[in-house]
Design goal:
Elements lengths: L1 H28 L4 E6 L4 E7 L3 E2 L5 E9 L12 E3 L7 E5 L4 E2 L8 H4 L1 E3 L4 E8 L3 H14 L7 E7 L8 E10 L3
Parallel strand pairs: 3-11
Antiparallel strand pairs: 1-2, 2-4, 4-9, 5-8, 6-7, 6-10, 10-11
């Protein structure tokens, strides 16, 4: 009887280890997105996500940036469509601040990229993979090490949008993540 209890205990321990190992394996291959969400007073929700929070050197960063019109919600002062863009520059953009390379740099901008209207509860999303070229990664790495060669600071991506008629891009917010040194 004592022997049977030992075997059952060993079987349970093996099953627990196998399940825990499977969970670790799954999470390594399917990381959770890392997001930052904010609301402006009154009418907009901003959301910027990277596919995970920690990256190895040279690993591509997949970024999404979403603006949503929440002006119709009960506690909001304004309710109606919101207009973005000046018809010339990108109405919204994603940029990395070290070299200030942006999603729009490698795009042929359509009229819809330069000006759009969000109706109540509508949203618009940009997706971007950085670095777009190996040279971008090299330049940013050089600048980061020149600023502080002893540390490996976090990276960030900035989201921008443009209100008409001013036409000047305004930064909304940044998302920060860890990008390991070489």
């Amino acid at each position: 009887m004592k022997r049977k209890g030992i075997w059952i205990g060993l079987l349970i321990a093996v099953l627990v280890c196998a399940i825990a190992g499977g969970v670790v394996w799954w999470r390594q291959r399917h990381p959770r997105p890392y997001c930052k969400v904010e609301q402006s007073p009154g009418f907009l929700e901003y959301k910027m996500c990277t596919d995970k929070q920690k990256y190895q050197f040279g690993e591509p960063i997949h970024v999404t940036f979403t603006i949503k019109n929440i002006s119709g919600d009960a506690d909001q002062q304004y309710s109606g469509p919101l207009e973005f863009g000046n018809g010339v520059d990108p109405a919204m953009d994603i940029c990395e601040p070290w070299e200030h390379t942006c999603w729009s740099d490698r795009q042929t901008l359509t009229e819809d990229d330069k000006h759009f209207v969000l109706k109540l509860r509508e949203s618009r999303t940009l997706t971007w993979t950085w670095p777009a070229t190996p040279e971008q990664l090299d330049r940013v790495t050089e600048q980061r090490f020149q600023s502080n060669p002893h540390t490996c600071p976090s990276m960030s991506m900035d989201g921008y949008w443009t209100w008409p008629p001013q036409g000047e891009p305004e930064p909304i917010f940044s998302i920060h993540f860890i990008y390991n040194c070489r």
